[in-house]
Design a protein that fits this description.
The chain is an alpha/beta fold and 326 residues long. Strands 1-2-3-7-6 form a 5-stranded parallel β-sheet, with helices on both faces. A two-stranded antiparallel sheet has the order 4-5. β4 and β5 form a beta hairpin. α2 runs parallel beside α8. The chain is globular, with a radius of gyration of 19 Å.
Length: 326
């Protein structure tokens, strides 16, 4: 793995720092609560936690307009929450309840919130990338300057549909921001066992797409790069690609650590944990402000869990609904 450089101390305004901390903290605490609940079997689907990777979603999405569109993969909790997805509907979906965002049918890997312009997340690697391109084509024809952002992992860049979509997006100059959350592993397979070279941005650039790499997890650097990309896309310049190095702290699927599983070790995680953007932002806040934000998030999560637990499961007659055309 590449040497991890020290995180740049942010220089955002006090209001920005507070906003970033709140979003990062909210996502982290939601994920931690899911990890706490998961062993009790109240959550009925596999979970792919975003702990450690939150800054990518927060940094990119902060620069979007409310009516811009976001698409994400099965590790999509962070993108869902950063875009404003309904927390109560999210927990209800994890519980398999009828009040969930997919009415209990999708679980953790199939979150959706049309009101906040969140396309449904997908459990199959890479399948949401061409769907995002289709949405971008629709928005281009709409002509209102809206854009689409699609998040995916480094493993998805090995799918043929990724390259097909790059070509299509470049050919049609779609307003589509490709964001690769490169955490260096496709499940348990390290990047160097899968890629002949690490020059992903170079490969993307051959399609005529501007490609940028951010290696240090700096949220403000991610945000600045995304803002520039989105501004150009609104003017019709076509797609842009961001490769954001990041690191997941938990196992690929599930709530636990897996540093004893034999495919990675704790020492490579340590630099990322020591430069955790959540801690960096938190240290820049007044302690009373930080404590108030933390308390508000704790209460919000408790209300969302209570809402999920009080909600009903879908009725039995719903089993075949939306399966066959009438």
């Amino acid at each position: 793995m590449d040497e991890h450089p020290p995180l740049t101390i942010p220089s955002g305004t006090p209001a920005e720092i507070e906003r970033f901390y709140r979003s990062l903290r909210r996502i982290r605490r939601v994920e931690e609560e899911i990890a706490r609940l998961y062993p009790s079997n109240v959550i009925r689907s596999p979970i792919h936690l975003s702990i450690g990777q939150e800054a990518v979603s927060v940094g990119v999405i902060d620069g979007l307009n409310p009516d811009d569109v976001v698409a994400a993969s099965y590790r999509g909790h962070a993108a869902y929450l950063a875009k404003g997805g309904d927390l109560k509907a999210m927990f209800a979906e994890l519980y398999g309840r009828d009040t969930g965002c997919a009415r209990g049918r999708g679980g953790s890997m199939h979150l959706i919130d049309p009101a906040h312009h969140l396309l449904g997340t997908s459990a199959v690697v890479g399948t949401h990338i061409p769907l995002a391109a289709g949405q971008a084509l629709a928005l281009k024809r709409e002509g209102r300057g809206r854009v689409v952002v699609v998040f995916f992992g480094d493993g998805a860049t090995e799918e043929g549909v990724f390259h097909e979509t790059l070509n299509f997006a470049a050919l049609h100059r779609l307003p589509l921001l490709f964001v690769c959350e490169n955490n260096f592993y496709a499940i348990h397979s390290p990047l160097d066992h899968r890629w002949a070279t690490r020059r992903l941005c170079e490969r993307v650039a051959t399609y005529g797409i501007p490609a940028h790499q951010i290696t240090d997890g700096d949220l403000l650097r991610i945000r600045a790069c995304a803002l520039e990309a989105v501004a150009s896309m609104r003017q019709g310049s076509g797609p842009v690609f961001l490769e954001c190095h990041t690191y997941r702290w938990c196992e690929h699927v599930g709530p636990s650590e897996d540093f004893e599983a034999g495919y990675r070790n704790r020492t490579e995680a340590q630099p990322w944990q020591e430069t955790d953007p959540l801690d960096v932002m938190g240290r820049l806040l007044d302690p009373l402000t930080r404590a108030q934000i933390d308390q508000e998030i704790t209460l919000e999560i408790a209300e969302a869990v209570a809402f999920a637990e009080a909600s009903s499961f879908p009725a039995a007659e719903e089993l075949l609904a939306h399966v066959y055309a009438p």
